Amino acid sequence: MKILIVDDSKAMRMIVRRALRQAGFGDHPVEEAANGKEALQTIASSPPDLVLADWNMPEMSGIELLSALRRSKCQVTFGFVTSESTEQIRQVARAAGAAFLIAKPFEPEAIRQAINQALR
Amino acid sequence: MSWPSLDEWGDALLVAADELATWLGLGGCNVVARVEGVSPDLPGAWIDLRGTSASLTLALLSYPEAGSLLARSMLSLGADDALAAEDIEDCVREMANILAGRVKREMEARDATLTLGIPWFSEAQSALPAAVAHVRLGDVPATVVLTLGRRDDSAGS
């Protein structure tokens, strides 16, 4: 399973990578992008099986990225890892086709549960 | 419906700071002093939180050594591990982002229109009228700040 982490914070990309390892996904190849635009380019050239994206990013937000992917008929499994965690945001994420939303700060167990449920 | 007071926003920020400090493995947040005044002239990360009720800017400020300690906690790095200044700033921005997201969730019932901006790091910010809490995130001294401009104040109603 190829995983793409999309976050404008290099530190947070490192933390998500670490959490993936701790959650038992350390053997899976991981790529990174710093915003939605970069992610679209990466997805076009090397389609992942799972996208883990932040919500608020410069250039292109996570929800704009998800909308663009669904418009182009890309059905990659998509989850948010974001500090945005209100019920309203969760509803918007679900309506747009996100499989899950993990609120920052998070523990590796949250990553493990969300991914396992989404891929079940 | 009454809009949240500055104290209520401050309470939400301290809930967020406690959760952040716990996540960092620092054992929670203790308030050393809580004052209304102006934001201290310290480096740190700022983030806007805009809604119908208020236009807020939230900050996490600290002396550079403390910022480095917080970043090392976030990245699980030891005292001797290399850490570039830009990576410390990135970590502190992300911590401000986490604080703002938690404040937004805490206040969702009072104002469901809140939106988060993109955090930015500033070496020093000119003094702004603010609610200030000097805290300890574990043993690390830091300051959390809220500036508040009421939307209805600016509209003059």
User: Over the alpha carbons, how many angstroms does the gyration radius of chain B reach?
Assistant: 15 Å
Supply the helix-strand structural class of chain B: alpha+beta
Distance between the termini of chain B: 15 Å
Classify the oligomer: heterodimer
Most strands sheet of chain B:
7 strands, antiparallel
Discrete helix count of chain B: 4
Low-pLDDT residue spans of chain A: none
Overall geometry of chain B comes to: globular
SSE string of chain A, helix = H, strand = E?
EHEHEHEHEH
Measure the end-to-end span of chain A: 13 Å
Could you tell me the number of beta strands of chain B? 7
Radius of gyration of chain A: 13 Å
- The computed structural class of chain A is alpha/beta
Mean pLDDT of chain B: 89
**How much helix is in the residues of chain B?**
25-40%
In sequence order, what are the helices and strands of chain B, one letter per element?
HEEEHHEEEEH
Q: Tell me about the biggest sheet of chain A?
A: 5 strands, parallel
Q: Please, how many helices of chain A?
A: 5
Beta-strand proportion of chain A:
15-25%
Order of adjacent strands in the largest pleated sheet of chain A: 2-1-3-4-5
Q: Kindly report the greatest chain-chain contact and the residue count on each side.
A: A-B, 21 and 25 residues
Short description:
The complex is a heterodimer of chains A (120) and B (157). Chain A has 120 residues and is of the alpha/beta class. Chain A is 48% helix and 18% strand.
What does this structure look like?
The complex is a heterodimer of chains A (120) and B (157). Chain A has five helices and five strands. Chain A is of the alpha/beta class and 120 residues long. Helix content of chain B is 36%, strand content 32%. Chain B is built from four helices and seven strands; from the N terminus they run H-E-E-E-H-H-E-E-E-E-H. In chain B, strand 6 and strand 7 form a beta hairpin. The longest helix of chain B has 22 residues. Chains A and B meet through helix 1 of A and helix 1, helix 2 and helix 3 of B.
